[in-house]
Structures
1.
Amino acid sequence: MSHQESVETINGCRTRVMRGGSGEPLLFLHGAAGAGAWLPFMEALSKSYDVIVPEHPGFGGSDTPDWLDNIGDLAYFYLDVIDHFGLEGVHLVGTSIGGWIAAELATRNSSTLKSLTLVAPAGVQVNGVVKGDMFMWSPDELMQNLFHNQDIAAAMPAPKDDDEMMVVLKNRLMTAKLGWSPRFHNPDLPKWLHRISVPTLIIWGDDDKLLPAAMGPAYRDLIPNSTLDIISECGHLPHVEKMQEFTSKVTSFIEGAA
Amino acid sequence: MKFYMMHLMPYADLDLDYDQKYNSAWITLPNSYYDPKKGAKLYNRYLDELEYADQLGFDGVCVNEHHQNAYGLMPQPGVMAGALARRTKKVKIAILGRALPLLNNPVTVAEEFAMVDNITEGRLIAGFVRGIGAEYHAWSSNPANSHDRFHEAHDLIVRAWTETGPFAFEGKHYEFQYVNLWPRPYQEPHPPVWIPSQGSSETIDWASHPDRRYTYLQTFTPVTMLAKYMAMYKERALEQGYEATEDQLGWSVPVYVAETDEIARREAKDHIENFLNKFLRMPKEMLLPPGYLSLRSMMGVMKAKSAIGGKQTIDDVIDKGMFICGSPETVRSRLEQYQTEIGFGHLLTLLQFGTLPAELTRKNMEIYASEVMPYLREKSSAEPAMAD
């Protein structure tokens, strides 16, 4: 694996960052499960891009700063991250609550972005679409409901020691803090998604039991230059469950956007 | 020692086979299981029981708050306190409590409690809790902010009771331009505050602080845990330069007393087991949402073999001292022993539990009030007098 890990202090928060590859910068914002490991899709994307994967403040190996109350705080934080690394022409990719952060960031300031990819993003509420309640699911149910392919769900490893269990609990706590109520959305976000000025790809698994794909058209209709791409036989984590399809879609989108 | 009758007001007519289809009597159990015709009768029966406790010479009656469940039908306990305020004459009325972090406006509780305190001319006891974890699912309140909101709501309520208004309150979660409570509470400086808990060193640190000295109430836990937390409270008090009185320590426990040990066990068995296995039933994720416990405490829960959800029997809970059951002699001696060893000043007995029907509840109350309470009252009034 060709990535490096570092701890960067950004806005007073010690932040764990994985980084690998070369090319145009691709900033990946993870979902509720954190970004503990350098995953195969990161490795695949690092063949073409400078892939930067921070762990959000409050997750995994990063500190939990006093200033962190909501997703908006993380949107501003990642604008600081872009400044910290001196990035320009960023391909911003976010999944689930990371997609929500990415959308909030892009409504605030798209000037350092070159493209935006939202993967089953939280952030927008669609009336009548019932989200899964991950906080009521047991660890087994969570895995089952995150994937379409139950063989993959069954193969996902459980925490192997106390340290890993503590990370699971820490990530879950911050996920609740950020998304318990309103449940995984910001009622004000739809009003401002029109400000996103970069080409945007929205990817959704057709069998997403946490944030149903029926939410996808709402996002697509609210972001001006966007397309919605549904991956079939896929759950909430296309970058894990359909890694090759995911990376090829992202790569060809970015090439088209460049 | 002072004696209270605690009530949970369960939906005792619950179809007990609900668990073949649903994993809990809370939150996700459809309210089609509730029949208002039966519920109306239960409410009135339960209020009658608490009023009867007043006549039987109890020092207080206690109601509490739970939401969206069959375990306890008092989502708004102030309604019950209001009903009891005029129909009882002597007993204290303890609302144990309101779950402060759930509230969007804690001043409503300051007002409600002050009203009951006025109507009863000072018979109110104010309970403040965080609620059990399930309440955060029921009210969509963020459990990750539970501790913060509890403390802020508490500070707001106590200031509303004690400071001349209007004043402005500027908190992180609550903000008011005008706080100016009408009516002010009847009791000076405010009603006694009790803090019910299933056991938490953080709660004990906070409740025992010399500025507060709140009564810490241990609820439904094994007697070894009771002893541990009561001792912890006394230690914390000493570390902070004062000696805790028995008035600062309370215990809440289900009790069933009958003519003989054998009769008591036979009459209580099904009802206490329904209480444990049917009404209390819920998965861990419902009971302990993220943030409800500190990460360290949550880690302990995850590592412990899951005790939640396992079937419990009457003997399990009797052995652990979580249920006191037997003849008057048995119940007297166990309670006397625990009181002597542990030194609590408030004993809250849950004399109706689960499906225990009206006639057995009344019998339980009568035997307890006539053959247990006077004996313990005499004993405990003798001993602390010497200690003082």
2.
Amino acid sequence: MAISRDDIFEKVQEVLVDALGLDDDEVTSEATLMGDLGAESIDFLDIVFRLEKAFDIKVPREELFPAESVLNNAEFVSDGKLTEKGLAEIKDKMPHTDLSEFEQDPDVNKMADLFTVDAIVNFIDNKVNS
Amino acid sequence: MRWIWIDKFLEFNSGQSAVALKNVTLAEEHLHDHFPGFPIMPECLMIEAMAQTAGILVGEARKFEEKVILAKVKKAVFHHYVRPGDTIILKAEIESIAPEAASTVGEIRRGDELIAQISLMFSHIDNNLAGKKFPEENFVFTDMFNSLLTGFVETETAE
């Protein structure tokens, strides 16, 4: 059964409000998890567990948040930026994320900004409606 | 020495749930200061008792091969004071468990009375800190925990 995008957003919002102790209106589509919403590493696992429960799906953590495995691979990072191979890798692994701006300057420090509320909604949308 | 803050397990269902008991006594020195003339168990120590109950449950689920560290207090709501002479019962359940971490939900009761609701996240640190290395030996689960689980783990895991 297909779930509408609005319904997905609402549930994702609820998950983030509970996991990060936020108010509803802080969780906008564009908000970044780390920068805007203050998520730390253990929160990502908390979010994964809560999403699994809320949508009754399996969410492999590296599928939703693949940054760690990419950053730990020397082939993908050089001089604080992602290499072409690294970029290709995250494009492949993060189809739910808009990378057009990041591609211009693939600074690893900016990778945190890729994890937005919208990226989670896209990810869930692909998972439950495909 | 290792600080054990629960007295015994009453139930232990491997990988699922555990029930532990703690007796609170005025012989605990901190109660004389918390507060003078009005001793009550500090809420943070109720969280510690739940962290031990749930942490041992999570550790046993992976046969104590992981170093299990309390990583996040997801929820801690307290409804009543706990006083010297009280016996509190801590019930913890594993909600989710993955290679990197586990989350638990739990309740503390005194008789039928709900004292607190405490939900926690535990990290399996060898799998969870970007490849950071820790000592080989499991410094979280030392032999002292075995005595707490005597009579529970063998019977429960043999099923």
3.
Amino acid sequence: MTPRRVAVTGIGVVAPGGIGVPAFWDLLSDGRTATRGITLFDPEGLRSRIAAECDFDPRAHGLGPAVTERADRYIQFALVAADEAVSDCGIDLAAENPWRVAVSLGSAVGGTTRLEHDYVLVSAGGKRWDVDHRAAEPQLHLAFSPSTLASVVAERFGAQGPVQTVSTGCTSGLDAVGYAFHTIQDGRADICIAGASDSPISPITMACFDAIKATSPNNDDPAHASRPFDAHRDGFVMGEGAAVLVLEELEHARARGAHVYCEIGGYATFGNAYHMTGLTSEGLEMARAIDSTLDQARVDPTEIDYVNAHGSGTRQNDRHETAAVKRSLGAHAYDTPMSSIKSMVGHSLGAIGAIEVVACVLAMAHQVVPPTANYETPDPECDLDYVPRTARPRKLDNVLSVGSGFGGFQSAVLLTGTGGRTR
Amino acid sequence: MSAQRSGRTAVTGIGVVAPNGLRTDAYWKSVREGVSVLDRITRDGCGHLPLRVAGEVRGFDASAFIEETFLVQTDRFSHFAMAAAGAALDDAGLSGKAAGSPYSVGVVTAAGSGGGEFGQRELQKLWGQGSRYVGPYQSIAWFYAASTGQISIRGGFKGPCGVVASDEAGGLDAVAHAGRAVRRGTDVVVVGAAEAPLAPYSMVCQLGYPELSTAEDPAVAYRPFTSRARGFVPAEGGAVLVVEDADRARRRGTAIRATVAGHAATFTGASRWDRSREGLARAIQGALDEAGCAPEEIDVVFADALGTPEADRAEALALTDALGPHGTRVPVTAPKAGFGRAYCGGPLLDIAAAVLAMEHGQVPPTPGVFDICHDIDLVTTRARPAELRTALILSRGLMGSNAALVLRQGEQA
Amino acid sequence: MSNTELTVQELSALMKKAAGVTVDPQDLTARVDTPFAEFGVDSLGLLGIVGELENRHGRALPTDAERCKTPRDFLDLVNGALTTGG
């Protein structure tokens, strides 16, 4: 039996530098950066005091107090991105069988920003272990439960099929899209609202990445601090945001005459079983994930037109994934543009994988490869074509997005153009 | 990828860390005898909170199971998960490095509360002393993916690794996820969930759940399906399974303790227990369909048993909606009434109990429950002998998920 | 204790606290050129040791500290930094 095919029919995004798909694509195609000094809290005393923040006013996007009281910032992002994606796909969800509509959303740190906020209240500023519950806010339990994300989004759209929140660190977004792909492929739903969201710009999350020196300390030049693949890269720049895709069984989309952006051709994830934060220099496990997606879609490595990199801008990550892509694509890797949008929108932990998949969908729609901003000085260990600073027109039929996450997760999603299947 | 595959997912290993037993055999003994271990919460800094009763895992010495290099960088919830995973791998005869390719073994966990105790300690350092006092392990101990990552690293497992960060029903979803990974070609998946939600701040976070029982007396705090149902009590712990393709298990001569035959999940909204009736009934029907199982084949039901009147009524009615007249005749049980609901770990403990019940031919009782006010055959007081070939496990989550899983009896190697 | 030298005994205690690695101080003295990795101290463990020392002494250590491969390299670097004042 041929597996059911899965189409992307709607996209939505909340990203630093502009809310919504048009603003997001403008930023990427212009090669502008949205990294700056942190304004969401006073970062005094931190090693890394910069981030890519969203200028986000929930009221401007139709979220009233009834929603914002219950939904933390990261869930608000997801709601706005989901509204855009559902509107974009043109489905009248009220007319669909709700038991065939699924939700699969990722988040690495979920409600930690609210958890930290209330922790300060109940602990008298970190003074007591036996915290005082009377100081807590009434909705705290919603921040405690990671499944609040998928639950709130499912309720908004009346989805009653399988609803899940995925949390695999920084591959959460890719994996949420991957699980959604499987959900439709296996016939457990016909439509899936898929994506990821995180709003991790808070003292505890910044401090924990400070502690392992993973974030860039380039506080004097935030606009140029995120430098994936550049010889002078010195860590990632924290970001925030959300992206949502509407995935739909291909025949279901065709039957209603929907615009199909592309198909999900394959998805795979493996563990590196090596280290919770460390990466090998060989990238064997990521290469295996890439190989698996190519096998699933029956796409030859030489048919890959663009690799959207994890490209966090840490020393080890960029070396690791350069090795992985060379292992999978062979000599063709040198002819394949590979860029990191984290240079522009920062690294929003679990959200970024979904934001990057949306960037890939847009790249295919526009037939333009987004650049790696700030890339100036080549690193001998990173010797591929990273599309320095300027977007590049290119025929894009098969596009790969890859990611690595704390815990050892190595994931890949392959997007194929509607005419891009070779067999 | 093996040549011959049955497409059926076998359970070949079970590891348990529960309030009523730190090992699988001790757990089954308590479950079979209907022992209740619910008690006043004794953990440090919790005594003043209005949540009084829970199922605490007591006497658990993590260093007896896990190397200190792993212990320093992980929370209690991962200690439970690593200990249970180790026991499950032993049980499956797969301890030490797995034979064959490291890519042939994957890891999936469900997590609903994360590393709360570790996180609270680091938050206290940050806000009490300053950001420089936050240690390097906060970045890997607090988040929901910690247990999957550590089990993968500790065992050298490079297969598909995943985390369902979910409400309670995610425990069943994780097992189904593992089963699908096996059907896609992974030889073995270590799958489970364990939780440690009894640190002071984690408990404060749970106080907002309207379904939480804040009773003072352990004897009456959690009494599902009775007229005195007043909510649930939380618990620590969980269970981990080793699942693999049934043919592969036979080839390597391992006992198949049970097979995962069917699963389905639905969503009906947070705390909308009236609507969970239809959601749960549809999940049951979906799981039966996938298993190719008629309603009459179900020999025992492990209930979700949330313990509020509305939720209990919805579950009892869902059984009849999905199973017809058999829904009022099939033996139903809720061992968790004796030790509490361990969030995502709860359904895994139910699966473990269901496998053991089928192996021993006994439906364990629902501890502390006598006066049932719903039209179901709830097994109480003592275990009931019965030939059990097929078990149905139900779970609903506080955020609105419903799930059902069908298990079939195993076979000796 | 802001200007005292880091001793092998203290390093041994820090390895236990920050990385969960138990090495007897005498054994550590004898194996002072053995890579940290062979003791089971990984990059995060060494970062934890560095953080602990920085907080104790109220000053930053050189950025190379967490890249030291062996206890001897680490002791030399840390003690060089701590005893030179600035």
